[in-house]
Amino acid sequence: MTSTYPLENKVAVITGASRGIGRAIAEVLAHQGADVVCGDRLDKQAEETASQIAAATGRRTSGCLVDVADHASTKNFIECAIEEFGKVDILVNNAGITRDNLLLRIDEPDWDVVLNVNLKGAYNCCKAVLRPMMKQRYGRIVNITSVVGLSGNAGQTNYAASKAGLIGFTKSLAKEVGSRNITVNAVAPGYITTVLTDVLSEEYKQAAIKATPMGRLGTPEDIAHAVAFLVSDQASFITGQVLSVDGGMVMM
Ligand SMILES: NC(=O)c1ccc[n+]([C@@H]2O[C@H](COP(=O)([O-])OP(=O)(O)OC[C@H]3O[C@@H](n4cnc5c(N)ncnc54)[C@H](O)[C@@H]3O)[C@@H](O)[C@H]2O)c1
Question: How confident is the model at residue 1 (pLDDT cuts 50, 70, 90)?
Answer without folding.
Answer: low
